[in-house]
Amino acid sequence: MDLALSKEDRAFAEEMREFFTTEIPADIRARVKRGEEMSKEDVVQTQQILNKHGLAVPHWPVEWGGKDWTAVQRHLWAEEMVLNYVPPPVVFNTAMVGPVIATFGNHEQKQRFLPPTANCDIWWSQGFSEPNAGSDLASLKTTAVRDGDNYIVNGQKTWTTLGQYGDWIFNLVRTDPTAQQQRGISFLLIDMRSPGVTVRPIQLIDGGREVNEVFFEDVVVPADQLIGEENKGWTCAKFLLGNERTSNAAIGMIKKRIARVKRLAGPLLDDPLFRARVTRLEVETAALEMSVLRVLAREHTLPPGMPDPVSSVLKLRGSELQQDAAELLVDALGPQALAYREDYGVPDGFAEPTEGAVDALPTYFNWRKASIYAGSNEVQRQIIAKAILKF
Ligand SMILES: Cc1cc2nc3c(=O)[nH]c(=O)nc-3n(C[C@H](O)[C@H](O)[C@H](O)COP(=O)(O)OP(=O)(O)OC[C@H]3O[C@@H](n4cnc5c(N)ncnc54)[C@H](O)[C@@H]3O)c2cc1C
Q: What is the pTM of this model?
């Protein structure tokens, strides 16, 4: 198998690099480079620039802003974006709800929601998990009861990433409490400014507050915001989670972290054991990248809306390698890794952190999440065992 990029693909990557480094404001890219938390404004502004040039949602159908690109081109687009410190488009919009609406929504819903979703005029949040429904998602209890032209929604979601920025939330709700678990679930879009919606932040181990609880109390939701058929939302959910897991491989991010390790490791790189760790990580990342390309390339051979179980392999390995890279950086920095992010303040008695060290430890802690979200790695192993290995 020839692993080298073709001349055309190299030219395409160069074109992307040129665009990202000239069109995306330098101050935003500098903040990403320093490891600072992105503001909502930075992310929205970036996505709107990308969208204006047709580069926000290349994997969507062409009539809704997608590009007729090859799998390799889509991969290079994502990779160059990360390597050049561009905040990626909001994943809830572009990789999650957008493709669901494009696949399962009716024409009015596509017209109403897809353009503002691509342009980030709406910031979407994901309302799947509940306090007692994470791995066992189908046991969710948030109800939506039909009342004329509306649904009345009651319940609670949790771990809602960036819910503090959310304008709308896509939810799995129970519409038939008498049906078997998966059968009574529907996929419902809810305006988060509706009366009865409350968002409460959760403090995390890295000091940040990027996840939230979302409460619904007698929230009135127009029935035309139901995507697909009532009680068939599980099909949308499986399709969405398949897409989410493919994007969770995050190859560009792993490469960027390895590059940072090499930049900051100094004489440690001459240590054969440390060097072997770096090399092993690089080789494993290259292997995962090939697998991502294989999955993307066969995407069009599956029936529309059919999730690819191999996405579980990508999520599993991607999250492990992201965590390995974060750990390697902490090991490389030694005591310097104890530096804190500027926005959390440097504790008394600590030296000012060197650039590239500020977010090493918070990032290490933060990325423990990667083996939990989008379905924990234990759950991915079960999917692989059942759907691929046929145990
Ligand atoms: C940072 C972060 C962001 C998130 N963002 C969102 C979001 O935006 N929207 C959203 O809806 N959800 C989000 N989630 C929720 C995430 O999808 C769930 O946390 C995840 O599915 C696990 O569910 P749980 O937390 O309830 O853990 P549990 O399901 O209670 O699992 C606890 C432990 O038991 C293991 N386990 C459970 N069942 C099995 C089994 N059958 N076999 C083997 N082991 C098992 C799990 O692997 C885990 O180690 C986020 C989570 C995190 C950590």
A: 0.91
Query: Which residue of 130, 135, 181, 212 sits with most ligand 1 atoms within 8 Å of its CB, as the best mutation to test the pocket?
Result: 135
Chain segment 319-330, per-residue pLDDT in tens = 999 999 999 999
Nearest CA to ligand 1 atom 16: 373
Ligand 1, pocket residues at CB < 6 Å: 126-129, 134-135, 159-161, 211, 369, 372-373, 375-376, 378-379, 382
Tell me if 102 is assigned to some domain: no
Mean pLDDT is lowest, of 34-43, 52-61, 308-317, 336-345, for 336-345
What pLDDT score was predicted for residue 1?
Answer: 46
269 shares its domain with 217: no
Atom of ligand 1 nearest to the CA of 376: 47
| Residue at which a domain ends, from 195, 230, 265 | 230
Last residue of a domain, one of 69, 89, 109: 89
Query: How remote is the CA of residue 101 from the centroid of ligand 1, in Å?
Result: 25
Number of domains in the chain: 3
Residue partners of 27: CB distance under 8 A and separation at least 6: none
- Asked whether residue 269 falls in the same domain as residue 381, the answer is yes
Q: Is 351 helix (H, G, I), strand (E, B) or coil?
A: coil
- Which helix (H) or strand (E) segment holds residue 302: the answer is none
Sign of the alpha-carbon dihedral angle for 220, 225, 231, 234: negative
378 belongs to a structural domain: yes
Residue 109 lies in a domain: no
Nearest-atom number in ligand 1 for the CA of 366 is 1
Say how far apart CA 367 and CA 361 lie, in whole Å: 10
For residue 262, which phi and psi values (nearest 5 degrees)? -65, -35
252 shares a domain with 366: yes
